[in-house]
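[09:14] KT: can someone run the structure on this one? pasting the chain below
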Amino acid sequence: MNEPLSSYRAADPVAENDRDGDADGIADLRRGTGPLAVSGSAPSLARPIDVSIVIPMLNEVENLRELVESVGAALEPTGWRFELILVDDGSHDGSAALLRRLAEDVDWLRPVVLARNYGQSIALQAGFDRAQGRYVVTLDADLQNDPADIPAMVERLEQDPEIDVISGWRQNRQDKALSRRLPSVLANRLISRATGVHLHDYGCALKAYRRAIIERIHLYGELHRFIPSLASEAGARIVEVPVRHHPRTRGTSKYGIDRTFRVVLDLVLVVFFLRYRQRPLHAFGGLGLWLGVPGGAILAYLLALKLLGEDIGQRPLLLTGVILVLIGAQLIVAGLTGELLIRLYHEGGRRPQYHTREPIDEHRRTRSRVRKPMHGDASR
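[09:31] RB: done, C-alpha cells below
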C-alpha cells in the first residue's frame, strides 16, 4: 500500500545542508531516547490499523519534525494502532529527504512523495488511497491544527454510530482578519447556502471520517474544500465540533486572497454534481426548454405574420427566435449525451448508484474488536 523508501527522489541541496543539524536527533531516535522513539517491541502484524492520519504538505521542512512528534504524542497514549501518511506534494525545500530519514526510525510513519506539485486535492487522494485505518483523520502540516484534538474526534466516532464525519471548527482562529478570516466567513456562508450542508468552517483541515465514507468519494481539481458536501452526497451524517487553532510560527502560508474567486467556480461544479449528477438531462434539458419554448413561440408568431402577408425578413425578432431555438436544442442534446455517459459510468464500470448504512448491531460488533486505550501498550 505504501511507497517503498527506495523509490524516493534524491535529497536536494537544502536537505543535504540540514543533514548535520539533524544528525543528533536521528541518533537519539535510533537509540530510542529521542521524542519520536518507538517501542522496541515488534509491531503486531495481525492487528488491523485503527486510525490513519493523512497530511498533505508542501515546503514544510521546518515543521516536519515537530509535526511527527506531536502526532506521536497525541496518538501513542490511546493504545490504538495508527499510521501517519505524510504526502509531500512536490516540495523543493528538502522535505522528502527529511521524511525519509524520519521514516527509518518511526515505524508508523508512511511517507508518500509525489513526482511534482499536483495540488492539495490530489495529495489528499494519494493519502486516502493508501490509508488502511478504520478511521481517517486529515489536518494541515503547518502546526496550526492541533493533533491533540484527534483522539476526542475518533472516540466520538467510536461511541456514536450515527455520525460518519466530524468537521473541525476553528472558533478562535489565529489568522489575519482581512486577508484570511473575512473571505473565509463569506465563503462558508455561500457554500453552506448553495450545497445545503451548513458548517461554520469548511476551510478547517482537521476532520475525522469513517473509512467507508472516504472510499465513496474521489477528489480531483480543488474539491478538497468541499469534502463535507461530497461526503453528504455519499450518505454521510456530519457534525461540527470546536477545535484548537494556533498561529503559524514557521514557514509561509500557501493560501492567498485569490483562492476566493476559485472557490466560486468550484462551487458551481459541486452544486451541479450534488444536484444533477444522476440526472444531467434535467439540468441541461431544463435550461434548453426555458430557452427553446420562448424561441418557438417567437417563430410561431412570426410565421403567423408571414401568412398574413407581412415581411418578417428584416425583423430582429426573427434572429432572436432562431438563436433561442438552436441553443435550446443544443442543450437538450447535451443533456441526452450526459444521460448516456452516466449509464456507461455506472453500468460499464459496475459502480453503485446508492450506498447503504451499516446496521447498528454490526457496528457494535465491529467496535468490540477495537482495543480500548491501554497504558504502556507496546504493540504499535
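[09:33] KT: thanks! The chain has a mean pLDDT of 80.
[09:34] RB: yep, looked fine to me
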